[in-house]
Specification:
CATH architecture of the largest domain: 3-Layer(aba) Sandwich
Protein name: Phytase A
Order of helices and strands: HEHHEHEHHHHHEHHEHEEEHHH
CATH topology of the largest domain: Rossmann fold
Subunit structure: Monomer.
CATH superfamily of the largest domain: Phosphoglycerate mutase-like
Shape: globular
Organism: Crucibulum laeve
Subcellular location: Secreted
Largest sheet: 8 strands, mixed
Pfam family, one: His_Phos_2
Number of helices: 15
Number of domains: 2
Length: about 425
């Protein structure tokens, strides 16, 4: 997929890889790094996957779809364009749905199920089927069932894999249980106000009378990836913007996740505590200990929260994922993200953390002494991968192999084990 260029200061060529790094949470899934197998003397005994739903249409929530249609109407309402590259707008028809998965989004989840079965053959057993849960949003439920289809395709078997649906209340796969948590609007608006004026001026000069605002620019830039994933070919809308403009666009998504449920939101990480405590329960084979957003009825039942499975898969949204990363201690930044000046060296990148169908995989392993190098008494370890990128778990003593002793990992999660160290109570003060 490419965008054409006139070579005179207009949009420059964009490759697919470049686009993936500039679409923030609208990025189609890609492995952030190549998957690295654990040391040869380690065996994987359990995996826990939490995955975002696949690519979707624009949402009604937060006026995403409405913002796009309003901005596009302004752009198409003018009587003439001063640049022939805008000519396609005369015949361009906006026909996207809302909220639901697009076909590519369904395929992404199927591929994930397929990859999981093939990557962990030692855990594939008809007597020990994956335990799959989903939050209640339809696109999330559909992603979960599509994952099971991919699993079936890889294993050649079609045993019944039930998808457990969590309720809107007391749901560790949602981010709606902290009413006092703030939003990222102040920070994202600040950056939109910084980067969009030159773009709005350029577009308005090409479409006299459109009177596009900074928010209109952001909405139109959002349409580029959403139209692309829906039609599975590069949207002509993308050609209205330059590489640098898309790189600036990316930062809106970074700020949004950081200040909504990430480290920049005082009550952000606590919204991931419930899932982390469920993860610890599965890793240790002990009942869930949590007083935050877990559903105690479901989590106390061996039917709806078993502790004897080798594969657990949960489906959610991008904001809960950001909260979970933050609760665990992943992707910490040396300084808070500046709303008006991006740090080019930041590792908090939405495109690598929460693209469509993003996934965090926590592997439980049994290894020999010295993290798999010896042949003595075996110990249990944990390592975490986000979109296949091995995470540096230095907070629990991991080296280059990413392995933490299970006990050390559990101890490192004091924030979750103490129900957010008092933060959860602040959600309702």
């Amino acid at each position: 997929m490419r965008i054409s260029s006139d070579g005179k200061g207009g949009p420059v060529w964009l490759t697919s890889k470049e686009m993936q790094m500039t679409w923030a949470m609208y990025t189609p899934y890609f492995p952030a790094e190549e998957y690295v197998k654990p040391p040869s003397n380690c065996g994987i005994t359990q995996i826990n996957i939490i995955q975002r739903h696949g690519a979707r249409f624009p949402t009604v929530k937060a006026n995403e779809a409405a913002g796009i249609t309003s901005a596009l109407k302004k752009l198409q309402s003018v009587s003439r364009y001063t640049d022939p590259k805008f000519g396609f707008l005369k015949n361009y028809t906006y026909a996207l749905g809302t909220d639901e998965l697009v076909p590519l989004g369904a395929l992404q989840s199927m591929e994930s199920g397929n990859i999981t079965a093939l990557r962990y053959p030692e855990l594939v057993s008809l007597d020990d089927l994956p335990f799959v849960r989903s939050s209640s949003s339809q696109r999330v439920v559909d992603s979960a069932t599509n994952w099971t289809s991919g699993w079936f395709h890889a294993t050649g078997e079609r045993p019944p894999i039930s998808v457990i649906l969590l309720e809107d209340r007391n749901d560790t796969l949602e981010d709606n249980m902290c009413p006092n948590a703030g939003s990222s609007t102040t920070q994202t608006t600040a950056w939109i106000d910084v980067f969009t004026p030159p773009t709005a001026k350029r577009l308005n000069s090409k479409a006299p009378g459109a009177n596009l605002t900074g928010q209109d620019v952001y909405s139109l830039m959002s349409l580029c990836p959403l139209d692309t994933v829906a039609k599975e070919k590069l949207s002509p809308i993308c050609g209205l913007f330059t590489v640098d403009e898309f790189r600036q666009f990316e930062y809106v998504g970074d700020l949004d996740k950081y200040y909504s449920t990430g480290y920049g939101q005082p009550l952000g990480p606590v919204q991931g505590v419930g899932y982390v405590n469920e993860l610890l329960a599965r890793l240790t084979g002990t009942p869930v200990r949590d007083n935050t957003q877990t559903n105690r009825t479901l989590d106390s039942s061996p039917i709806t929260f078993p502790l004897n499975r080798t594969i657990y898969v949960d489906f959610s949204h991008e904001h809960p994922l950001a909260a979970i990363y933050s609760a665990i201690g992943l992707f910490k930044q040396p300084a808070p993200l500046n709303p008006t000046q991006p740090d080019p060296d930041r590792s908090w990148l939405a495109s690598r953390m929460v693209p469509f169908s993003a996934r965090m995989v926590t592997e439980k392993l049994v290894c020999g002494d010295e993290k798999g190098k010896g042949k003595g008494k075996k110990k249990e370890y944990v390592r975490i991968l986000v979109n296949d990128a091995l995470q540096p778990l230095k907070f629990c003593g991991a080296g280059d192999d990413g392995l933490c002793e299970l006990k050390a990992f559990v101890e490192s999660q004091a924030y979750a084990r103490t129900d957010g160290a008092g933060d959860f109570e602040k959600c309702y003060d």
